[in-house]
């Protein structure tokens, strides 16, 4: 499976996020992506399965990446 780079991304709906780490689920050992929305006053940490983070989604009839890497 593709590797996740740490740094800035944009969600396909436009929100900016920052990937902090790739972590493991304690029971299933599934890879999870730990990130925060960078457009909030008080950051909230979120996790999403790595497979879901990397998947393509349908936006206006086109398949696009759920998250687009923007850089460090």
Figure out the total of helices.
1
Mean pLDDT: 94
Q: What would the CATH topology be? A: SH3 type barrels
CATH class: Mainly Beta
Query: Number of folding domains?
Result: 1
- End-to-end distance: 21 Å
Q: Which CATH-level-2 architecture?
A: Roll
User: What order do the strands of the largest sheet run in, or round the barrel if closed?
Assistant: 4-3-2-1-7
Shape: globular
Superfamily (CATH H level) name: DUF1653-like domain
Order of helices and strands: EEEEHEEE
Low-confidence stretches: none
The total of beta strands comes to 7
Radius of gyration, CA atoms, in whole angstroms: 12 Å
> What profile does the largest beta sheet have?
5 strands, antiparallel
Outline:
The chain is mostly beta strands. Helix content is about 5%, strand content about 55%. The chain has a single domain (about 5-70), classed as SH3 type barrels (Roll), CATH 2.30.30.
What topology emerges from the helices and strands here?
Layout: E1 7-11, E2 16-24, E3 31-37, E4 45-49, H1 50-54, E5 56-59, E6 62-65, E7 67-71
Antiparallel strand pairs: 1-2, 1-7, 2-3, 3-4, 5-6
Account of the protein in words:
A five-stranded antiparallel β-sheet has the order 4-3-2-1-7. The chain has one domain (7-71): SH3 type barrels (Roll), CATH 2.30.30. It is built from one helix and seven strands; from the N terminus they run E-E-E-E-H-E-E-E. It has one helix spanning 50-54; strands at 7-11, 16-24, 31-37, 45-49, 56-59, 62-65, 67-71. The protein starts with 6 loop residues before the first strand and ends with a strand. With 72 residues, it is mostly beta strands. 7% of the residues lie in helices and 54% in strands.
């Amino acid at each position: 499976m593709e590797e996740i780079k740490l740094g800035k991304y944009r969600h396909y709906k436009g929100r900016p996020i920052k990937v902090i780490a790739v972590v493991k689920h304690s029971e299933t050992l599934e890879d999870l992506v730990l990130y925060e929305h960078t457009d909030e006053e008080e950051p909230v940490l979120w996790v999403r399965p790595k497979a879901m983070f990397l998947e393509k989604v349908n936006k206006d009839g086109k398949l696009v990446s759920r998250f687009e890497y923007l850089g460090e």
